[in-house]
Design a protein that fits this description.
With 106 residues, the protein is α+β, with helices and mostly antiparallel strands. It has a domain at 31-104: Arc Repressor Mutant, subunit A, CATH 1.10.10. Helices cover 63% and strands 17% of the residues. It is built from four helices and three strands. It has helices at residues 6-28, 33-42, 49-61, 84-104, and strands at residues 31-32, 65-72, 75-82. 11% of the residues are buried.
Length: 106
Amino acid sequence: MKPKTNQSLMKDFFLGFIKIHILYHTGKRPFYGQELKEELEEHGYTMSFGSLYPLLHRLCDDGYLSREDKNVEGKIRKYYTLTSQGRTLLGEAKNKMKELVDEVME
């Protein structure tokens, strides 16, 4: 098996960070896709809608997010909100991140 390049490994790391960002922000209030894309870009992550929406659908399918379709000025927007299962996962991720940061940044 061919070893991953640094760029490939960083992409894996960032995908995990992106998921945590999504869980965090949707726990504060419902977000629709464009808002999440813009929020991620503010943190330096570039993600196409072709990558973002499958990720959001997967998080919904896995029970971490719920989706509500709303008609906003004649346009259907899909709003994503953190579920209780997602909140539990986010709490576990926060604990692991704190443990990692404490260890790595000592």
